[in-house]
Every structure is written in C-alpha cells, then in structure tokens.
Design a protein that fits this description.
Elements: H1 2-11, E1 15-17, E2 28-32, H2 36-44, E3 48-59, E4 70-73, E5 76-78, E6 85-87, E7 90-94, E8 102-111, E9 116-121, E10 124-129, E11 135-145, E12 147-148, E13 154-155, E14 157-167, E15 173-175, E16 178-182, E17 188-200, E18 202-212, E19 219-231, H3 246-262
Antiparallel strand pairs: 1-2, 2-17, 3-4, 3-19, 4-7, 5-6, 8-9, 8-18, 9-10, 11-17, 11-19, 12-13, 14-15, 14-16, 14-18
Length: about 260
C-alpha cells in the first residue's frame, strides 16, 4: 500500500485513460513526477520488477561512437543487502554518430511467450531473449542534463519521445509524448510516463529526437529508457483518472520547456 500512496502522490492526478477511446482491456498511460530515487525504491520494495530496459543515450563525446548509443539492458535488481541496485549491463548494443536535432524512428517489440525482445532504433536491430514473463507495466524515462563551459556560458540539451503508439493486443493507441530539457548549469531534468495494465506482449513505436548546444553530452547526460517490467501487487498499480484536455496540458508543458531553451 505504501507504493500506491507514493505513486499516487507522484502522478499528481494527470492521467490518460485509454479505455475511454478503446476496448475496456486497454492499457493506461499516466504522466508522473516520480524521481529516479523513488523509482529505484519501487524496485527495492518489490512493488515493480524490471524485465529489461531499452535505452538510447548520447554515448561518449570523446570516442563517439565507440561508447554505445543504443542498448537492450538486463534489469536492475536489489543487491544482497537490499540497500541498492545492481545489474543493468547491456544484453545487446549498437553505435551511431548522433547529430543534434536529428529525429529517428524506433520500435520495441516484446513477445511474452518466447521472451524475445526486438529493439529497432535508428536503422539498427538489437535483440535479446529473456524468460517468458508477461509484462504489465512500462516506465518511460527521459533525462537531459546541461553543461557549464569554461567561459561561463551554458550548453543546453533536450530529448523527446514523440508520435508514440502502443499495441498490446487491442490495436495501436496513442501515448502522450515525453520531453526532458535543461538549459541552466549542470543540473538536469528527468521525466517519467507510466504505462499500466498491459496484456503481456506489446509493440511500442515512435520517434526520438536528441538536441544539444556545443559538445555532445557524454554518456547518459542525454538519454531515454523504456523500463519494461511487472507491477507485483495489483493494488500498487496507480489508478488513472480521466483528465479532459490532457493533450493541451502536455502541450503547455512542452511549450514552457521550449521557451526556456530559446531564452
């Protein structure tokens, strides 16, 4: 029950109930203000278990593309003392010379019967196989971190997951876009979107756009993760509330971020 309270508080009530426009069995997509620390605590508490993570990141600015830009990663799991997380190593990885402002397509497919993962991203196919565990939840995460330069100026960064569509057996339905942007100093902006009530197997597709000023942000300063897993207690899944005009709210939020970038 503690998890349900934590998530409900983090979500702030901004949810999109796809059941309103699709069959009753459809998934739900919910904007969330949960932090990385709170997400990690969900795993430590056993409320959510990762199955795998599909990732896009900016890699290494000095050796690009020797440091991976794309990956299908093993799950993060509690360590032996249950006071931290371990794991997350790549099961498959890919490289790409990234260009600021470039938009590329992605498609993530998971077959819960065979355990097969296919991550088509930027024209590359990454593959892995895990145990045949039905997925019932996804946490989409974007992260953007700014950079202070030697002359005191600030380099901005932004990452967006857009034109998102998800099919878990009821046909493709739209999912709200997700953007992280930071323009001031070395701090960061991290955003989450929670998808619940999946039926097991799914296909998620859309587009990814990474933008930055100056030097390429190193490693995961600019990154997106698709954290696929299971809510282990049905009572812990956040109950969505239908919010009329959520597209308008999301658009306002994105507009505010873009105005910050242009300031």
């Amino acid at each position: 029950m503690a998890f349900k309270y934590t998530i409900a508080a983090a979500l702030g009530g901004a949810a999109l109930t796809l059941g309103a426009i699709a069959p009753a069995e459809a998934f739900t997509a919910t904007s969330s203000s949960i932090t990385d620390q709170e997400f990690n605590q969900l795993i430590l508490d056993g409320a959510f278990s990762e199955l795998f993570v599909a990732e896009t990141r900016t890699g290494n600015a000095s050796t690009n593309p020797a440091e991976r830009e794309f990956g299908v990663n093993a799950p993060l799991v509690p360590n032996a003392n249950n006071d931290g997380l371990v794991g997350g190593l790549p099961l498959d990885a890919g490289n790409r010379n990234l260009t600021s402002g470039e938009t590329f397509d992605f498609e993530l497919m998971y077959n819960a019967v065979t355990g097969q993962i296919n991550y088509n991203v930027g024209g590359q196919l990454l593959e892995a196989t895990i145990g045949n565990v039905p997925a019932n939840g996804i946490f989409l995460r974007t992260n953007a971190q700014g950079r202070n330069t030697q002359n005191g100026s600030t380099q901005s960064s932004e990452i967006t997951l857009s034109n998102l569509m998800l099919d878990d057996g009821n046909g493709f339905q739209a999912v709200p876009s997700l953007t992280s942007l930071f323009t001031q100093g070395n701090s960061r902006d991290t955003d989450y979107l929670v998808i619940a009530d999946l039926m097991g197997s799914f296909t998620l597709k859309g587009q990814q756009t990474l933008s930055w000023d100056g030097l390429l942000p190193s490693n995961s300063r600019l990154a997106a993760q698709i954290k696929v897993g299971t809510f282990n207690d049905p009572e812990s899944v956040p109950e969505p509330a239908t919010i009329l005009g959520i597209a308008t709210v999301a658009g306002l939020g994105l507009g505010l971020k873009r105005r910050r970038l242009q300031a």
